[in-house]
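Chapter review: from sequence to fold.
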Amino acid sequence: MKNNAGTIRAGIGGWTYEPWEETFYPSDLAKKNQLNYASRHVTAIEINGTFYRLQKPAVFAKWRDDAPDDFVFSIKAPRYLTYRKVLSEAVDSVPRFLASGLSELKQKLGPVLWQLPPSLHFDADDIGKFLQSLPHELDGLPLRHVLEVRHKTFMDAAYVELAKKHSVATVYAHTDEFPNFADVTADFVYARLRKTIATEPTGYSEADLQTWHDRAQLWASGGAPDDLPYVTDAKPPKKPRDVFIYFISGAKERNPAAAQHLLKLLRA
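The token string follows.
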């Protein structure tokens, strides 16, 4: 959703999930048409299939053609790259993943999500080498990166400064499972909201979704919400930035409804 600042997008993880055939998709919708439908009811999708295996260029091209012009896909990087004891050992494999067909998405290519294992501790030298290896252009397309850190040692001002230095965003994960912090480390914001509940038709309550609407608007206009945790007191540059909000995990059957309701609030 575009406001007078950056673009705010709300979406889900993937589009194939059996319970969605009852809670999201029309009963007569063929499976082959699910992406076409989903991409017209949310404004972004985080592709999780790439986390498990590389995809072919033709697959990315098909996804591109199934989605409308103003849609964006985030790509989750393969676990064989990020689930290591030493992250920088993945540096030589990064180009192979990026060259596997991501640029076939063209203008629909969104951020690349690099999810770290909960066991990986922050090591400035190791993380710095990895972040430095991430290119910010792919076949003439701008390339944005976001790191999901899941160990408490990353709640360190040295990490925040390192991410800022390399213009890599840090996931704000709304969860009690892992440490989370909302320091803005790039020119966009990426939030993964993991607390949808099955008893709430829209996943999050109306009041909670209104709060996320307000936070998204503030992020997009260059601000930072004062009701989220931070590692440092540094304020981000006051300039427009794009915002990606994904409803992930939790009560997955409710995630499409949560994203759609947030978009409804943004349009209002």
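Two observations follow directly from the output. The longest strand covers residues 109-115. Residues 21 and 30 are 10 Å apart (CA to CA).
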